[in-house]
């Protein structure tokens, strides 16, 4: 059963390049309600834990280094069909393949530095949201 919440992070590349406001505008213009939001920075240990599912993949070390190099914006979003609709809004991982009008087409610079994270399932949205936000921080 689909839920109406998903999780996103505006990644260090997009934060560093000053795209927070524009990305948040695309999110809200896409019909999403922001129910939790914070600017924070992942430690190396945090990034390793968050991306543990990729620990055996060849890009894991680079991913951990990238995600812990600077601040991120973490957010929980609400909308009917949130996970699938947000995956559509962010676009393909490779910005060269992302559709016009998507966040990654507008703000990603490469496959590795692709501006935003979006949960890939309702289950992961709940896990990722709980990783970043205590219950009292979720509205």
In short:
Helix content is 40%, strand content 17%.
Keywords:
139 residues, alpha+beta, four-stranded antiparallel β-sheet, 7 helices, 4 strands
Shape: globular
| DSSP strand count | 4
pLDDT < 50 runs, ≥5 residues: none
What structural class is derived from the secondary structure elements? alpha+beta
Summarize the helix and strand pattern as letters.
EHHEHHEHHEH
- Average pLDDT value? 96
Helix content range? 25-40%
Number of alpha- plus pi-helical segments: 7
Radius of gyration: 14 Å
Strand order of the biggest β-sheet:
2-3-1-4
Largest sheet: 4 strands, antiparallel
Distance between the termini: 21 Å
> How large is the share of residues in beta strands?
15-25%
Describe the structure in your own words.
The chain has 139 residues and is α+β, with helices and mostly antiparallel strands. The protein is 40% helix and 17% strand. It is built from seven helices and four strands. It has helices at residues 12-16, 20-29, 44-50, 60-67, 82-90, 103-107, 122-132; strands spanning 5-10, 33-40, 72-78, 116-118. The protein has a four-stranded antiparallel beta sheet. The radius of gyration is 14 Å and the shape is globular. The model has no long low-confidence stretch (mean pLDDT 96).
SSE layout and pairing:
Layout: E1 5-10, H1 12-16, H2 20-29, E2 33-40, H3 44-50, H4 60-67, E3 72-78, H5 82-90, H6 103-107, E4 116-118, H7 122-132
Antiparallel strand pairs: 1-3, 1-4, 2-3
């Amino acid at each position: 059963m689909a839920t109406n919440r998903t999780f996103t992070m505006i990644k260090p590349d997009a934060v560093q390049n000053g795209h927070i406001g524009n990305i948040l505008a695309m999110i809200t213009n896409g019909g999403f309600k922001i129910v939790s939001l914070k600017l924070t920075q992942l430690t190396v240990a945090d990034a390793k834990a968050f991306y543990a599912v990729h620990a055996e993949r060849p890009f894991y070390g680079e991913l951990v280094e990238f995600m812990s190099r600077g601040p991120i914006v973490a957010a929980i979003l609400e909308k009917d069909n949130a996970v699938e609709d947000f995956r559509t809004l962010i676009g393909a991982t490779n910005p060269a393949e992302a559709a016009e009008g998507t966040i990654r087409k507008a703000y990603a610079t490469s496959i590795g530095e692709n501006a935003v994270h979006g949960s890939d399932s309702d289950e992961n949205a709940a896990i990722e949201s709980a990783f970043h936000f205590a219950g009292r921080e979720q509205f």
